[in-house]
Specification:
Elements lengths: L1 H24 L3 E8 L7 E6 L10 E6 L7 E4 L9 E5 L4 E6 L7 E5 L7 E8 L5 E7 L9 E5 L5 E6 L13 E4 L4 E6 L20 E6 L4 E7 L14 E6 L5 E5 L3 E6 L7 E7 L8 E3 L2 E6 L4 E6 L7 E7 L4 E8 L5 E9 L2 E8 L4 E4 L14 E2 L13 E9 L1
Antiparallel strand pairs: 1-2, 1-29, 2-3, 4-5, 5-6, 6-7, 8-9, 9-10, 10-11, 12-13, 13-14, 14-15, 16-17, 17-18, 18-19, 20-21, 21-22, 22-23, 24-25, 25-26, 26-27, 26-28
Length: 407
Amino acid sequence: MRYAAFSISIVLCCSAVALLAQQSSSSRYVVTWVGDADRADSDFLAVVDVALGSRTYGQIINTVPAGAIKTIPHHTEQYFFPGHPLFANGYAGNATFRFDLSDPVHPRLMGKLSEVPDLAYPHSFARLPNGNVLATMQAKGDDFLPPGGLAEFRDDGSVVRSASAANDVDPLVRLYNALVLPEKDRLIVSGGLMTMNDPRVAKRPNDHSGFAVQLWRLSDLRLLKTIALPPAPGSRPTANQDPYEPRLLKNGEVMLTTGYGGLYHVTGFDADTFKADFVFDFGGSSGVPVIVDRFWIQPVSGLRRVVAVDVSNPAKPVELSRIQFDDRQVAHWLSADPFSDRIIMANSSGEPRLWMLKFDPISGLVSIDTTFHEPGDDRHPGISFDHEVWPHGKTGTGVPHGSVFVN
């Protein structure tokens, strides 16, 4: 019995050490950019405690109003860069806000981005090696007419430079996201249309689902080449529509997913070799993915699932695991914790909810973290934003979107 007790104590001790190690290496907070559901009150940034073992774990511990209504919060930066503000885009309001997260428990609103001459409606953001932020712009002016372009901003919100995405392949192109390849002095930029159920960002005459991908030179923001994504083979040729999310793999390869669920391998970083080949079909409309090691983890909004794919051979991706959600969930936004195996997920519609996922980089298994739930509710994983009262006041249900870990 003494040996059994001793062995149990060793197991408990090792488990405690492992838990402490995970707690010390994991991010402590998630901040999420939240829209007021009835659009009557200010949109806001919310802080969620995700520190394992914390007495407020799984709770929204603070909120900061943006001082603006009806912006319909959309993308933030996908990762937080310490020492810099977080950029958070109120897409329909043509307004991007900057938040100081140096004290993540008490974020501070720093103001908006400056207007860009001849461009409008920022969409997605990429940090540059010089610390500035590159934003894709969906339109050329306040009237939401295409084409869009690119703009570089300093942390104080001022504009450094900008350029139009006008081209002959898709004259009505709207830029969605950009992948920065500093060692190649290149940018891979997707040309997907983003509209919402709001007259400010509804389709304009001749608007169409995007189909173009662009190659730019980073150093002088010069557009080098625009190509049309080839149709997907088989029963879903339109899986090439709305190129959305380019990503750099650990092995240096570049891939891109479309809003219609196609996955493409992008190669050649000169004007005469630039191309994209269809390699995988997720089967439905898709959102914002993350890359973990050799795995592409994709929210497939239209099918209410998250899928993990091994892309170590980018020409032949292999699905390894998936999570299937219920009809109330519309998986859209993912962001990975740089310090642990956790991924935060936000619904784009349906139930206003944040989920915590876990990912095993050995097996490729993606799963729901059932420990992440509201206090007293261990039957429903995740955090609901269907609240009446928030730390900043009684403003009703919020809709979370862009969400990032902060340590």
